[in-house]
Design goal:
elongated; 222 residues; disordered C terminus; mainly alpha; disordered N terminus
Amino acid sequence: MSAHCCAPARPAVDPRYRRALWIALVVNAAMFVAELAAAASSGSVSLLADSIDFFGDAANYALSLAVLGTALATRARAAIVKGLCMGAFGVFVLGRAAWSAGAGVAPEPVTMGAVGLLALAANVGVALLLYAHRGGDANMRSAWICSRNDAVGNVAVVAAALGVFGTGSAWPDLAVAAFMAVLAVTGAATVLRQARGELRTVHAHAAIDAAAKGHGAPRGAP
């Protein structure tokens, strides 16, 4: 969605998109609780990363709902907040994986695999709900990127569980956690780039409008 000086300041909200966001919010909040418990019991860093990601996504969907129907500048600023959260998540997980590499204790693979499959099913469902809205503004795009990254990350968690089961090593789990972190950082960069572009467009149109009003002012006006 591009800004335009003739566009309405508060666009109409597609009720299907609002409903999709509410479903995504509930699913992500529930999966955060489930994966956090599974990460604690299994010792998996990739599950811990995914649980934190679920929490961050639930907060992001709540933010998306809060700014629905607001002006493009407000939605772009919300997308910047979401992009920064995605990037912070990635940096945290990279640090946690590096710390766990020193311990070298392999996680419990059966719990990893089972919960990873459950999370995959949840995220694929959310991604399908949001797929039709992926081409909107930065705020809508960020919601889609969150769901896409989660689904890809869950496939990787299941693969890591198989790797841990086959090797008895923690490295598959740590490698997937690092992969998920990089995915979050690159997704954050995409969202931030689009949001900044939208803000520049808004500011440019505001400057044009201000200049037009200045030229149209009566002579002798201050």
